[in-house]
User: Fold this.
Amino acid sequence: MKSKRYKKLPENTNLVKPDTINNLIPIIKKNCTTKFDESIDLSILINNKQKKNEISLRTAVNLPGGTGKKTKVAVVAEETKQKAAKDAGADLVGGDDLIDKIKNGDLNFEKLICTTSMMLKLSKLGKILGPKGLMPNPKLGTVTDDIVLAVKNAKAGQIELKNDKDGNIGLSFGKKSFSDDNLIKNFNTVLDTLEKEKSNLTIKGDLIRNIFVTSTMGVAYKVKLGKNF
Assistant:
């Protein structure tokens, strides 16, 4: 059952003509009528159903305007690199001791970073970390010997872009409280990242089929796409 607040929002926005993100952001913010700082979200559908193979896209993007969320970061590293990880802002740092905690089901973190030399030990916990999307991955910059950079990226606003089997990518790219400029910068950075990924994929036609923008408790609007997608 729709709430009184929701009933006051615009109806049939799916029938509204697609518009640029610059024009839609003020509208989305106006529809943020809850008392909390709503997230601004994207729903992207990519053209993953190809004749010869199905496209699986997975990469990381650093949002220049941040995400507005605090990410709890854990680091598995050899002892010589643990202090650097702590100084960089990691919330949990350890070696074999942290691996044992994870093995016992202690997953009190949202992102896990691991050094190259410790990855062999950590990889044995794939059945625990994999289903929760926490397994470190070199492509995402979470298996690395540059622990300081990885932690800073994770804390500053790094998010993952990954499509499901139907080609959907869902993500938050900011908050209502963000300036329009920061939201636009974040949006453009996401699209720029997808454009770069397209060159690494075997895609026939456009990579992106459509994009919708909404807020946590708002209604969705279709975003007008440029020629590159």
